[in-house]
């Protein structure tokens, strides 16, 4: 048996992003399922996993239901002590736990006024006093982490704290919010992270657009790494005969930077078109 991980829409569900990163970044396998945010009945869709009412929800191998991201993180850290979810150094670990708990319970203005939308980026978004206060607090927390550890992440290697701050990085980037140089560098590190890029690319091609997450601000291009030029095509001779992800025969084609590659289904193709460099399995084929 393995874990079951139930998530919401990748583009909008900041809590689901946290939950997925806790498994993906630390190499913990899970059978992933999704609820549909478009119907707004998440609790009903989770009825078979009672008492859970929100995503992410984890079902442990023996059947325990865990539906709070901090509880999920601590349970995984207990069950997988060698995975490195928390820093090994006691001082760093204690500080990382404190920062994570504050992220889990605070920053209400930033959450409510700047909902995560990985498919959109804005310029000149209004910044309320509450959002400004939240940004300054983030700068303080991140600067304190830097005083204790010089990276590459907040507390050395990637930890639970970074997974929890990933949606914040998406908000700062997506709304063009001004932060100091170190905070901006930390945000950019998230945008360039392979797992973050994969999550975003899959959301761009797999999620239904939800208009209630859209703001009426002026839009701009996403501030993360610029993806390789790509598009889906109907005909052509691919360089590969097996899908880079499944190993199955190719049935769908894409042109990436003028070269043709094949995939076993539309989702494999489209996520690669969205951000080819986010997927090492494809890039191995591309570079060969």
Report on the structure:
- This protein is of the alpha+beta class.
- The protein has three domains: 3-79, Glutaredoxin (3-Layer(aba) Sandwich); 90-197, Glutathione S-transferase Yfyf (Class Pi), Chain A, domain 2; 230-287, no CATH class.
- 43% of the residues lie in helices and 12% in strands.
- It contains eleven helices and nine strands.
- The protein has helices spanning 14-24, 42-45, 69-79, 90-105, 108-113, 129-148, 160-174, 181-192, 194-206, 266-274, 280-287; strands spanning 3-7, 30-34, 57-59, 65-66, 121-123, 218-220, 230-233, 252-256, 259-263.
- The strands form three sheets. A four-stranded mixed β-sheet has the order 2-1-3-4.
- Helix 9 (194-206) packs across helix 10.
- The longest helix is centred in the middle third of the chain and has 20 residues, at 129-148.
- The protein is globular and about 55 Å long.
- The two termini are 36 Å apart.
- The model has no long low-confidence stretch (mean pLDDT 96).
- InterPro entries: Glutathione-S-Trfase_C_sf, Glutathione_S-Trfase_N, Thioredoxin-like_sf.
- Keywords: Transferase.
- This is Glutathione S-transferase.
- GO terms for molecular function: glutathione transferase activity; maleylacetoacetate isomerase activity.
- Residues 3-84 form the GST N-terminal domain.
């Amino acid at each position: 048996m393995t874990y079951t991980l139930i998530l919401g829409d990748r583009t909008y569900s900041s809590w689901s992003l946290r939950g997925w990163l806790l498994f993906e970044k630390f190499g913990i396998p899970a059978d992933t399922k999704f609820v549909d945010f478009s119907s707004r009945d998440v609790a009903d869709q989770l009825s078979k996993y009672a008492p859970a009412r929100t995503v992410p929800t984890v079902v442990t191998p023996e059947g325990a239901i865990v539906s709070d991201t901090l509880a999920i993180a601590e349970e995984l850290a207990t069950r997988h002590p060698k995975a490195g979810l928390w820093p090994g150094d006691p001082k760093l670990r204690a500080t990382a736990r404190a920062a994570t708990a504050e992220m889990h319970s605070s920053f209400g203005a930033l959450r409510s006024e700047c909902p995560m939308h990985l498919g959109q980026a804005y310029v000149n978004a209004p910044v309320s006093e509450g959002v400004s206060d939240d940004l300054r607090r983030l700068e303080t927390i991140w600067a304190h982490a830097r005083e204790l550890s010089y990276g590459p992440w907040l507390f050395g290697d990637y930890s639970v704290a970074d997974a929890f701050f990933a949606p914040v990085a998406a908000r700062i980037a997506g709304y063009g919010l001004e932060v100091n140089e170190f905070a901006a560098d930390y945000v950019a590190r998230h945008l360039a992270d392979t797992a973050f890029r994969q999550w975003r690319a899959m959301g761009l091609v797999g999620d239904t657009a939800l208009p209630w997450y859209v703001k009426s601000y002026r839009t701009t291009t996403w501030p993360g790494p610029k993806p390789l030029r790509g598009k889906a095509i109907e005909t052509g001779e691919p360089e590969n005969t097996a899908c880079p992800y499944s190993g199955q025969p190719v049935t769908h084609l894409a042109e990436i930077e003028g070269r043709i590659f094949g995939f076993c289904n539309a989702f494999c193709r489209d996520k690669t078109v969205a951000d080819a460099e986010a997927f090492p399995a494809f890039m191995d084929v591309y570079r060969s």
